[in-house]
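A further point concerns the way the authors explain their paired sequence and structure data. The central task, working out the structure tokens from the amino acid sequence alone, is never made concrete. I therefore recommend that a typical entry be quoted early in the introduction. An entry of this sort, consisting of the sequence and the corresponding backbone structure tokens, reads as follows:
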Amino acid sequence: MESSARETSAPALINWELAASTAARLAPAGPTLGAAEIATAVENLRLMADISVQHVHDITGLEAARDLRDSSVLVVDRASWAKANTQSFAVMLEPAINKMLEDRRGAIAPGTANVSGAITGSQLGAILAFLSSKVLGQYDPFSALARDSTAPAGGRLLLVAPNIIAVERELNVEPADFRLWVCLHEQTHRVQFAAAPWLRHHMLDEIANLSGHLLGNVDSLMERASAAAKSLKDRTATGATPGRGVILDLLQDPEEKAALSRLTALMSLLEGHANVVMDAVDAGIVPSVKTIRQRFNDRGTDRGLIEKFIRSLLGLDAKMRQYADGSKFVREVVAAAGMSGFNRVWESAEHLPTEPEIHDSKLWLERMGL
């Protein structure tokens, strides 16, 4: 007979299907396009994704770029992006949820879990609905690990067509140039994971470790969440700097903070590297790249109150600062050791920089003997 932990399954604690359907229902409408326009945009995005691979190879020097398959590039709408992320979240959180259920065997009734799952699923869906109109593209390394997934073993690249089109119209830039510019960033992430086949499971282990700490302290989680929400409300009311975000405020235990530090360093490295690749792109690759950069960077200065609140909740502004630190790390290492020296980060998990090393590249260079 199966245990209570098995009866109260991971999907019951978070209703992933409800999260996906809620996101699809709440996602803002995208730009109006005719059938022919949609078909043309999808074809062009696929073309730009394919063209960008060689440029990424030339800039990074990573041979893994040569083996990328077009089949793992998906041009999606907002609802499909949200559904894909619920699948990845399920993969990332399942180990921690199952461990929590095993540790609390018999303490969570199936009925209670289902109600909790519906609430959590709805909340996650609302967050995904907000993000679904903001994300231009995303490399999903965990899709191949999802149940019943038909994704290629190397993960999949998602290009959110309505968002890309909306932004290129908003900025009044050349569509083909902007699409290539976006694809260069996202294809860099594909190359990173292709160059480091161990990275997918390493990242999954780190996420499971962090979420395991959070869920393992579930008895104090609601109390900490309440205090963090009050802090956010106070900061918003007074106009204070948002800080790290409510989600990060939940972390108090030293082990939780250490787990977050490792993930922060990894994400800073991945995004910083992708940003450096984009910055290496000149007019010979994207003719209007200077205009795109200027207008794209300027668009973030005029956000509404609700968007600012949600960004504060998720800590997205803090996240952008971390990515800037990652870019600085990559540039300094390349300047000191060349691209081949920097590419040692993809050889093993032991070569990944720590958070202190992200902030002081000399520490990493010394550890690597460069």
